[in-house]
Amino acid sequence: MNAVMASALAVPRPMAMADVTEIWRIECAAYPFPWSKSTFADCLFASGYSNWVLANRDTIFAYGVLSVAAGESHMLNLCASPAYQGRGYGKQMLEQMLGVAKEHGAEVMFLEVRPSNTAARGLYERFGFSRIGRRRGYYPGADIREDALVFSLSL
Q: What are 20-35's pLDDT values in tens digits?
């Protein structure tokens, strides 16, 4: 099956507690310092965040966690499964999250990204995000903490 056909089978839906184990598996495969399972569970139940997956009946291809309040949105986590990267799932998930932010009245979206994550930076820049700052020592690292680049997009 080609990437276009596979992408057509992937649809966004709200994240469910039953998804957390698979999302955490993807998170661990994608990042050397992943969020914990309990962090994802907290995002579902304790935080009021907007949590989405891009999936078909059997597979989660991507997921996102978004905070929206007071006319602003903050992309807290956006990840395409490493097994499916390069097939447009990250783009499709970002489109979903931008739509959710707009539906909730956000006028701007903020996010942080590691400088070393060139694929994500490229995706955000293609969508029109602009770099507006840097958070020193934001991300954990093996030897030293890595900075975060802060991006924003007017919605």
A: 999 999 999 999 899 9
Task: Give the residue carrying structure tokens 């998804």.
Answer: 19
User: Residue 4: which H helix or E strand, with range?
Assistant: helix 3-9
pTM value? 0.90
Structural domain boundaries in the chain: 3-154
Q: Please list, in sequence order, all residues whose beta carbon lies within 8 angstroms of the beta carbon of residue 35, skipping any fewer than 6 positions away.
A: 24, 27, 77
Identify whether the C-beta of residue 127 lies closer than 8 Å to the C-beta of residue 94.
yes
Reduce the DSSP state of residue 99 to 3 states and report it: helix
Q: How many residues does the chain have?
A: 155
**For 131-150, what is the mean pLDDT?**
92
Enumerate the active-site residues.
112, 124
CATH class of 3-154: alpha beta
As a whole number of angstroms, the distance between CA 147 and CA 130 comes to: 17
Distance CA 94, CA 151 (A): 14
Quickly tell me which residue has 């400088």 as its tokens. Answer: 115
If we measure between CA atoms, which residue out of 61, 56, 58, 74 comes closest to residue 113? 74
φ, ψ (nearest 5 deg) of residue 38: -65, -30
2-25: average pLDDT? 82
